Amino acid sequence: MKTRSILLTLVLLMTAGVLLQTAHAQWSYRRVQYRYNNPRPAPPTNQVGKPTQPAEKPVKFKDLPLNSEFYFLADKDRKLFPRIKISNTAAKNVPTRGTPTVSTNAVPGDTLVIMKKEEPKKDGDKKDQQEKQDGGKR
Predict the structure, then answer these.
(1) Segments in the chain below pLDDT 50
(2) Cα 45 to the center of its chain, rounded Å
(3) Separation between Cα atoms, residue 73 and residue 58, nearest integer Å
(4) Are 59 and 115 in contact (CB under 8 A)?
(5) Please, what is the end-to-end C-alpha distance for the chain in angstroms?
(6) Residue 39 has what DSSP assignment?
């Protein structure tokens, strides 16, 4: 009987110790998380923000030129599913690593899409500019 009461007392003491330790640890974590005593420094005022790029305007599918690359409005931010217009009523997807097979889909002419911007290559900027000046002959 005596061993049972000693065992029960030890279990209760260990449980109380574990609970107190976790409560104390949680308090210190909250203090670090919210930092009650240290206010945040004011943001520097001498920095200039980056200029924002103009928003891409949606165009109707029927107004796109043939063989132009575009994205649907739902894919505006990610640009994961590029398509190419192959006729006035159809478009095919561009094969990517995720979708290696090419499929053709019918697209209504009044559907709003975003035309892909043609960006010059970073390593060939000067070469691209010279080709434009020469009329594309090189």
Answers:
(1) 138
(2) 28
(3) 8
(4) yes
(5) 101
(6) P
Edge-to-edge, what's the strand order for the sheet holding 69-72? 59-60, 112-115, 69-72, 83-85, 90-93, 104-106
Q: d(Cα 23, Cα 26) in Å, to the nearest integer?
A: 5
Indicate left, alpha or beta for 135 from its phi (over 0: left) and psi (-120 to 50: alpha).
Answer: left
Q: Kindly state the helix (H) or strand (E) to which residue 24 belongs, with its residue range.
A: helix 2-34
β-strand pairing of 59-60 with 112-115: antiparallel
Decide if 61 contacts 113 (C-beta within 8 A). Answer: yes
What are the pLDDT digits (tens) for 5-15?
Answer: 898 898 988 88
- Using CA atoms, how far residue 16 sits from 9, 13, 77, 101, in Å, is 11, 5, 52, 63
